[in-house]
Amino acid sequence: MAVxxxxxxxxxxxxxxxxxxxAGAVTAQTPGRLRFGAIGDGTRLAFPQGTVFGERWIRLxxxxxxxxxxxxxxxxxxxxDLGAEPMLVLGDGVVIGRGSHVIADAPIEIxxxxxxxxxxxxxxxxxxxxxxHEPVGRQWPRSAPVVIGPGCxxxxxxxxxxxxxxxxxxxxxxxxVVRGEVPDHAVVAGAPARIVRRWTPExxxxxxxxxxxxxxxxxxMTSEQLxxxxxxxxxxxxxxxxxxxxxxxxxxxxxxxxxx
Length: 260
Known about the structure:
Oligomer: single chain
Strand order of the largest sheet: 2-5-8-11-16-19-22-23-24
Radius of gyration: 26 Å
Helix content: 10-25%
Number of strands: 24
Order of helices and strands: HEEEEEEEEEEEEEEEEEEEEEEEEH
């Protein structure tokens, strides 16, 4: 009876949590208490949300995915008048992973189709430590705009510091700490981050990539055809394994007849 009660309680809790996730998600049609400067169609902030304030100065493009417990803030604290211009702008198709923070005390722009892994920290302000006698947290911070170009990938735990300007299709390795300018089609890693690989039209990727490039999906390929190819690819290893087993059986039979 106790086991049955625990199972029932577990089912009720999980069902209720799924309902809250659906009901608590923020979209253009169901903004809840949040009144963003703009929120595009198809954009969804997962429930539970992290700290969100200054949303009047936050503009979210269409089809963005904002994970659970993501902090989005404009201004140093709530209820400030930040003027007429937006402080935080996300392009279309931006993905921000669970537990990330985007802190816009100065303007931050994240280009379309940029993906962020979990735990990414993007900030346009940082504490100063000029006065050696004053606690660092009490010293007035320094701010500088941040621009992240379209098509970038920011790995888990990456940190983007004030004044950073990332070009198009930049890859930031997990745990990297980025400041300054990063050119288009570069891969950066480390703390502080440095360029470890870059693509140019003249030389391609340097150093060369160690993995083969993915095969693009042919134009006009339907989803049914893709599923058929996937099924065929899964069947081929199994067929090869069966053939190997059959060959081994034939060889063992031949050895047994020779011994006889």
